[in-house]
Amino acid sequence: MRLSERLSCVLAAAAALATACARAQQAPPWTEDCKKSTYPPSGPTYRGLLPWYTINLDLPPYKRWQEVTTVLSPGLRTIVQNVKDVVNAFSPTGRIMKMVDERLPSMLGNLPWPFEEELKGIADVSGIPLGEILSFNIFYELFTMCTSIIAEDKKGHLFHSRNMDFGIFLGWNINNNTWTVTENLKSISVNLDFQKNNQTVFKATSFAGYVGSLTGMKPGIFSLTLNERFTLNGGYLGILEWFLGRRDDTWIGFLMRSVLENATSYEDAKNMLIKTKILAPAYFILGGNKSGQGCVITRDRKSIADFYELKPKEGRWFVVETNYDRWKAPFFLDDRRNPTITCLNQTTQENISKTTSYDILSTKPILNKLTVYTTLMDVPGNVYEVYLRDCPDPCIGW
Ligand SMILES: *[C@@H]1O[C@H](CO)[C@@H](O)[C@H](O)[C@H]1NC(C)=O
Ligand SMILES: *[C@@H]1O[C@H](CO)[C@@H](O)[C@H](O)[C@H]1NC(C)=O
Ligand SMILES: *[C@@H]1O[C@H](CO)[C@@H](O)[C@H](O)[C@H]1NC(C)=O
Ligand SMILES: *[C@@H]1O[C@H](CO)[C@@H](O)[C@H](O)[C@H]1NC(C)=O
Ligand SMILES: *[C@@H]1O[C@H](CO)[C@@H](O)[C@H](O)[C@H]1NC(C)=O
Ligand SMILES: *[C@@H]1O[C@H](CO)[C@@H](O)[C@H](O)[C@H]1NC(C)=O
Fold first, then answer.
1. Contact residues of ligand 4, CB 6 A cut-off
2. 307-335 pLDDT, tens per residue?
């Protein structure tokens, strides 16, 4: 149990630190007027585009990530070091990192195909120890804060958009009021084109070194995003069980990737997302290619907690998910849900589009200091656009 006790100690202490550091910023709750005419992206909230890489699924898993890892391993090394610094700050003897390096690789034996081989390939090409690459992959199961929206216009055309917010608790840079990990993630953010037979199977936005998926689209078929769900019986427990030897549940990021790679329809994807036992609670936001095909699946680890789908005929033309159960009030210091709904209401169903979705996701605090990128997906129109974001002051810390 020692590793687990220490991990939760690290997390608790980091949370306290983060709260203290973020206090200097614009105090929550604080909401900006809904933005207008922000698209095409420009100005200080737009950092740039992401590079595209092809992941060839016809290659053996060990070789698939060679190119992206080679190009981006310096950035990956920086992030792994950021995380080690946080861990070592709470365990100055370096015992946790020693355990990560020595013990984690031997636990790999039970990761499903093709993930284990892919991770080994990334470790070898980057020269970063396998245990550290594995813990880098575990991180995304724990710290992903997000806003996801699926909305349909009067013609039944669907738009799925999201802000990826990541890096809370992992170090605050007092020089320019940014989260260290959030900033460093921007330089290893990539768009991936997963191909078989030289044809796109799905597109995804990811971080170099990570083999799961958090955001993706299967052209013509569905779009999918993952939002973290924090509950008492949460991810920490599942991950603990995994460390203690219970390996039958699926990592959420790996399930997302399997669905994107192998599900053949909206219904098929929905089934996989509802039925697979997972390691941590989660919200899956799934959009299809026609009117009414958009839902938020609220998952406990073993079963479904709630299913909420578009009902355009009854006036439910959008679904929104941040990081709170829809039937509960959001944490009062982190209400991104009501601002999102307010802006959707103001936009109206007549005017919802890729462009107005970007406006909504550019409105603070929906856009905040943790926001790494904004993704705009339009399955029927075959549009997949991703923009790196910044949130200059005044801006809320999360
Ligand atoms: C803030 O400073 C860090 C470290 O110097 C840098 O990596 C990052 O790009 C800066 N971010 C902004 C928005 O200026
Ligand atoms: C994919 O395209 C490349 C170059 O265009 C070609 O050499 C290769 O044989 C193709 N592979 C498959 C599986 O079709
Ligand atoms: C939408 O999905 C249905 C069934 O899954 C398929 O028949 C149809 O061709 C798809 N539409 C487009 C635009 O791909
Ligand atoms: C998708 O299915 C194929 C064939 O069953 C399997 O080999 C592959 O590992 C699956 N991909 C993922 C990411 O689970
Ligand atoms: C949005 O509009 C709906 C329908 O008119 C209304 O019930 C809801 O209270 C509004 N929500 C916000 C946050 O403005
Ligand atoms: C919808 O867009 C049209 C055209 O840009 C504009 O004239 C109208 O005011 C917009 N409606 C709302 C409710 O913003």
1. 113-114, 257-258, 261-262
2. 999 999 999 999 999 988 999 888 777 88
Nearest ligand 6 atom, CA 346 = 13
Q: Is 348 in the pocket of ligand 6 (CB under 6 A)?
A: yes
Q: Please state the rounded mean pLDDT for residues 226-255.
A: 76
Give yes or no for a contact between 385 and 152, defined as CB atoms under 8 angstroms apart: no
Mean pLDDT of the region 360-387? 96
pTM here is: 0.89
Catalytically annotated residue among 9, 21, 34, 146? 146
Ligand 3: residue of 290, 291, 293, 378 to mutate (most ligand atoms within 8 A of CB) is 290
Rounded to the nearest angstrom, the distance between the alpha carbon of 310 and the centre of ligand 3 is 18
Query: According to the model, what pLDDT value does residue 16 have?
Result: 42
Using a 6 Å cutoff on CB, does residue 350 contact ligand 6?
yes
Cα 65–Cα 225–Cα 216 angle in degrees, nearest 5: 40
pLDDT above 90 covers what percent of the chain?
A: 63
Q: How far is CA 168 from the centre of its chain?
A: 13
In the predicted model, what is the mean pLDDT of residues 363-371? 92
Q: Report d(CA 7, CA 97) in Å as an integer.
A: 11
Q: What digits encode the pLDDT tens for the residues 196-211?
A: 999 999 999 999 999 9
**3-class state of residue 12 by DSSP:** helix
Full strand arrangement of the beta sheet holding 158-166? 46-49, 383-389, 371-378, 158-166, 144-152, 318-321
Report the residue among 173, 184, 185, 372 best suited for mutation to probe ligand 1: largest number of ligand atoms under 8 A from its CB.
173
Give Cα separations from 69 to 118, 215, 218, 386 (angstroms). Answer: 11, 19, 24, 20
* Ligand 1 neighbourhood includes 390 CB (under 6 angstroms): yes
356 CB-near residues (< 8 Å, 6+ apart) = 347
CB-based burial, 4-30: b 16+ in 10 Å, e otherwise: eebbeebeeebeebbeebbeebbebee
- Amino acid at residue number 51: P
Which residue's C-alpha comes closest to atom 1 of ligand 2?
198
